[in-house]
Amino acid sequence: MPKESSSSSTVPLSTPRALARLAPFVKPVAGRLIGGGLSALAAAVIALCIPLLLQVVLEGPIATGEIGAIIWGAVAVTVLALGEALMVWLRRQFVLNPATQVEYRMRTQLYSSLQRLPVAFHDRWQSGQLLSRMMQDIGLIRRWLAFGLVLLVVNLLTIVIGAALLFRWHWLLGTIFLITAVPLWISGFLFEKRYGVLTRRSQDQAGDLATSVEESVHGIRVLKAFGRGKHALVKFARQAESLRETELSKARSVGWIWFWLVLMPEIAFALNLVAGIWLIAQGALNAPELFAYFAMATVLRWPIESIGFLFSFMLDARTATDRVFEIYDEQNTITDPESPVSIAEPRGELAFEGARFRYQDARPHERDLLDGIDLVLRPGETMALVGITGSGKTTLTTLPTRLYDVTGGKVTLDGVDVRDLTLAELRTHIAMAFEDATLFSATVRENVLLGRADLDVHSAEAERVLREALDVAQAGFVDTLPEGVETMIGEEGLSLSGGQRQRLALARAVAAKPKVLVLDDPLSALDVDTEALVEEALRHVLAETTALIVAHRPSTVALADRVALLQNGKVTAVGAHSELLRTSAHYRHVISSLEAEEAARTGAIPVVAGASVAEAATTAPKAAHGTPPSSDGAANDTHAENEEVQA
């Protein structure tokens, strides 16, 4: 479940005011919706005219036995019925297209909002909740606009008009009708309060269920590998049962309102029958008038009975509107500056000046995860960033492109604060490749050239850039795919191996031709031979590109001109690899840890370059003992331990 949005802390809106928020989407098509409403109202008025015509026929032609007049009366009733059917057809023609236009606009704006909102927003929201709002809630709003809203307004007007017409025969009959309607309004008020809560709970639970399905599908390999399919099924069944119970509660609430909607008209019919017979006996009413009265009451029965369904439909739409506007109302904290600066000829100098960062759910007493980073990458320099797990390496790499904004200090590109650049320009100058390579359901070509909006993906120049990037990433395997670079690679690239996905993600970053390249351990899924080839090709690319590389392997450190050591939220040492081995015990500890992990992966014997194994063995425990991770900052530490996935 997502955290409460900013709007949730304000006074809740009434149902009409909540639904009125749809006005900007409805306004362009309001004319056609009004036309649909008028058509429906015309159909209702025609239906109300039929009892009046029947009274005339009963009092005239039937009473006098004029066969020709009776036939003309039947023809008139048929014409009215055809007119009613025509108005119903017109209503559908008027409203169907506008309602789908509203649905289209709302979906497009919601998707735009999801793209615009910062990563911090997506950290808080489950994807299933977003998906249910995008598909289920907006679809429900469309159906309500096309059907529920029009019929609710028209049926209420029909009841008012019909009730007024009932008084034309006798005030007593009309009064009985109104009195028997009072319980309906009371039960409707109680129904709104309970049903609104249940509807919100149901739609949120449906979002949770969608999240569970999505997680189990994406994680099917893990579930199968660990034999946890039944465990996932038990969790899903528990969530599905909660949703079922909520839906049953909704059904019971609807059943209760239907009980009154069916019972009270029947009671009104019975009382009116007794009153009508008594009025006939008193000479205050005749039989054709009583017949017409009951015909009118019968016409009104459907509008009255439909109110319960339409009322619940309106509450469903109100809840769906609230849920969708929770996304619309989210504030984007990472935006373009009011007076942007532009870098005409970027050199690629990247600097962190007292940069601080803490996650949004960190408690006040916790220290910043990045606690004053001072680091300068010279133009064309390749710098490796090393540190123990949870030190904040991946979090640091998200700051240059403003996936997150610093909470203190600043990050500069060629002396310009990155917050003074437009996001479009900033992300043209700086490109990223993540350890967890994400690809899209598109062709290989489209995935690799994702960052080159300036190119026609099928042009000769695009082909040249594509091939260079694939060569650097040693991704020649794409030519063996069924359709080469035009092969659709499937959802999130899961049809490829981990190493193949990572090479395509690296090719995507290289193809962007940035002045600064930020790489978060982009070679972790590659075998030793492929890694060596990629590293050799990267050396040529990085010769003219400033690069910040998060190193999880000793071999990655070898790519760097200098190495920065991240410890306790600060950069505690910067220098050449050999220099840091001589001067920093903590650096030797980190490198020995990386070599141990590499040895476990490859079966090799770990050796710390520039220092003896014995020295590493003696210094590592001291370093580990002397510089423990901070015990405070629980929320930031939790984020840090999972920071690679959060990027």
Automatic annotation (TrEMBL):
Entry EC number(s): 3.6.3.-
The chain positions of domain ABC transporter read 350-593
Residue ranges annotated for the ABC transmembrane type-1 domain, each copy included: 34-316
Gene3D superfamilies in alphabetical order: ABC transporter type 1, transmembrane domain (1.20.1560.10), P-loop containing nucleotide triphosphate hydrolases (3.40.50.300)
**What is its subcellular localisation?**
Cell membrane
Q: Could you tell me the keywords of this UniProt record?
A: ATP-binding, Cell membrane, Hydrolase, Membrane, Nucleotide-binding, Transmembrane, Transmembrane helix, Transport
The organism's place on the tree of life at top rank: Bacteria
What are the record's GO terms for cellular component? plasma membrane
Instruction: Return the Basic and acidic residues bias intervals.
Output: 638-647
Q: Tell me a Gene Ontology molecular-function term this record carries.
A: ATP hydrolysis activity
Q: What is its main location?
A: membrane
Q: Per the record's keyword annotation, is Transmembrane helix included, yes or no?
A: yes
**Annotated transmembrane regions:** 33-58, 70-90, 144-165, 171-191, 257-281, 293-315
Quote the biased-composition stretches of kind Low complexity, using this chain's numbering: 618-629
- Give a Pfam family name: ABC_membrane
Q: How does it sit in the membrane?
A: Multi-pass membrane protein
Residues annotated as region Disordered? 618-647
The record ties this protein, via SMART domains, to: AAA
Which PANTHER family does this one have?
A: ATP-BINDING CASSETTE SUB-FAMILY B MEMBER 10, MITOCHONDRIAL, ATP-DEPENDENT PERMEASE MDL1, MITOCHONDRIAL
> Which named protein is this?
Putative multidrug export ATP-binding/permease protein
Q: Which organism is it from?
A: Microbacterium azadirachtae
